[in-house]
Amino acid sequence: MSGTQNPYAYQYETVAVSQTAQVLGGTGAVGDYVHRLIINVITVASAGVTLIDGSTSIVISTAASAVLGPISLELNMRSATGPWKITTGAGATVVAVGIFSA
Length: 102
What we know:
Layout: E1 11-15, E2 22-23, E3 33-41, E4 49-53, E5 56-61, E6 69-78, E7 84-88, E8 92-99
Antiparallel strand pairs: 1-8, 2-7, 3-6, 3-8, 4-5, 4-7
């Protein structure tokens, strides 16, 4: 789009192993949108991933349910109570795709 930014263009943010409540976007905000999480499981025993909406934790992956390699999960969720945050275990990385506040 010439001279304007497409408001529906997805962004992405990477989350490394062993991160605690990493905010998606610069500051994150209520109404931010998570389209997809791409989880790369490196070590099954410690591959937990939790998505946090403000103070509400949503367990996405546990070590017991993980398989080695990439997992793509379509979520299509808007934040209701605060910025989206992600916590990862020592055995998983995440690429979060969505629309996040700068």
